[in-house]
Design a protein that fits this description.
The structure holds two protein chains of two kinds. Chain A is mainly alpha-helical. Chain A is built from twelve helices and no strands. Chain A has a domain of about 80 residues. The C terminus of chain A is likely disordered. In chain B, helix 4 packs across helix 7. The longest helix of chain B has 27 residues. Chain B starts with 10 loop residues before the first helix and ends in an 18-residue tail after the last helix. About 10% of the residues of chain B have low confidence. At the A-B interface, helix 2, helix 4, helix 5, helix 11 and helix 12 of A face helix 2, helix 3, helix 4, helix 5 and helix 6 of B. The complex binds zinc ion. The site of zinc ion has 6 residues of chain A, from helix 4.
Chain lengths: ~200, ~220
């Protein structure tokens, strides 16, 4: 805190100084000699204590023990689901391999299914090429097409910047185009980002 | 001579021990054990996490989800957690970022969508509805509810960053150094925001200040 903030013009402690004293637990020497400031310090201290109590009570009332227990159960369910997919994902391959060993009929079935898949894929490719050809025009201005494709994105840039008001610049996981505060990057590197979480969810 | 009893671990040390164990279980594929051990971290940090998220987001359902997400993210990425940093700081940072994501999404939504939801009677549910049945008298409850309501309205009038810093410093009891580590702001900025928040709250909550009496500060508790 600046010294100018600490003392008012008439030599008394500022309110910020009284607040700072409360948080630090260090009593300014001025209070030993000034009744007025002692009175003010008590007032500030009462206010801070009451506000803390009220704020905690409000949050605790909204989240009583039962709600916290339910939340914890939900967290554990989510973690279980995240830990589980690795087993589920490998299932079809394992099943197919097993079937290959045991069951000739099912191998035959897969052979047939393979033909159906190949035919479907060929149909899809033909359809896509046909579609392209039917809309293709020799004079089609490629520049216009790409301009049209990027057009809706352009107004988004100022939009993103506008949302960067108070607090938003603290974001770890911000849009790639957003400016970053350098002082945050060290700790941000240590903390996971949503994209990483999503990717690891997929991997698991 | 009697054996000296081991010094009890600090929260920070205990957290680090749990984190190391969870990481080891995860690496060895003992996922049930990893989750079970991780529950200790949830137990220790859930209450403070919900207080932070609740005051910062000002919506119970949103706070609930933000806290869940933060624990899930920290479980998944515990491998990147280094024990030289308190788990509390690392975890709170994840929580704050999740909350900021939500605030951003909310702002985007509110640009297009109508006012916050209310119940069928058109009245937002009061936080006092969650109070346990035993305890203060009905009159005291009304008074307490009113004061909480006023504080809630006043907190809602603070800029988001001031509210976050006030919440971490005042409700969570963190020093400005800790808040600085949690938010990435430097310590003097933290103090400036804290003083501003307190000045503003004190003027909003001063006897006779009529501008905090309006209802509808807090979004519906779902
Ligand atoms: Zn004085």
């Amino acid at each position: 805190m600046r010294i100018a903030d600490t003392l008012l013009r008439r030599g008394h402690l500022s309110e910020d100084a009284l607040v700072a004293a409360w948080y630090s637990g260090v009593c300014p020497a001025h209070l030993d000699t000034c009744d007025l400031c002692t009175e003010r310090a008590l007032d500030v201290s009462r206010w801070l204590e009451q506000t803390r109590e009220l704020g905690m009570a409000e949050a605790d009332a909204a989240f009583p023990a039962e709600r916290l227990a339910a939340q914890q159960a939900q967290i554990l369910r989510r973690l279980e689901q995240l830990d589980r997919p690795s087993k589920l994902l490998s299932f079809p391959r394992v099943a197919a391999a097993t079937a290959g060993h045991h069951d000739f009929a099912s191998r035959e079935h897969r052979h047939f299914a393979g033909w159906i898949l190949a035919a479907a894929a060929a149909g899809l490719i033909l359809g896509v090429i046909g579609g392209r050809l039917s809309t293709w025009q020799p004079t089609a201005p490629a520049v216009h097409t790409s301009a049209a494709a990027t057009a809706p994105r352009t107004p988004k840039a100022p939009d993103t910047l506008r949302s960067l008001d108070q607090g938003a610049d603290l974001l770890l996981e911000s849009d790639p185009g957003q400016p970053q505060i350098r002082s945050l990057s060290a700790i941000d590197r240590m903390t996971p980002q949503g994209t990483v979480v999503r990717a690891s969810n997929r991997r698991r | 001579m009697a054996e000296a009893s081991p010094t009890p671990l600090t929260t920070r040390e205990a957290d680090a021990c749990v984190a190391i164990d969870v990481k080891a279980h995860q690496a060895a594929g003992r996922l049930d054990a990893a989750r079970e051990r991780f529950t200790e971290l949830v137990d220790r940090h859930q209450r403070r996490a919900i207080r932070i998220a609740f005051h910062y987001l000002r919506e119970a359902a949103d706070a609930d989800e933000a806290v869940q997400d933060a624990f899930v993210k920290s479980y998944l990425h515990l491998g990147t957690f280094r024990e030289d940093l308190p788990f509390e700081v690392w975890f709170t940072r994840i929580l704050i970022n999740g909350c900021l994501d939500r605030l951003k999404a909310r702002r985007r939504r509110e640009r297009w969508i109508a006012p916050p939801p209310v119940d069928t009677m058109g009245v937002e549910r009061d936080p006092a509805e969650y109070l346990p049945s035993r305890g203060p008298s009905p009159e005291e409850l009304v008074l307490l509810g009113e004061r909480r309501e006023q504080l809630s309205v006043a907190l809602g009038k603070l800029p988001e960053r001031q509210r976050l810093i006030f919440t971490l410093s005042h409700f969570d009891g963190q020093t400005s150094r800790e808040v600085s580590a949690m938010t990435g702001l430097n310590e003097s900025t933290v103090r400036v925001h804290l003083f501003r928040a307190i000045r503003r709250l004190r003027s909003l909550l001063a006897p006779g200040a009529s501008h905090v009496k309006s209802r509808g500060s807090r979004r519906a508790h779902r």
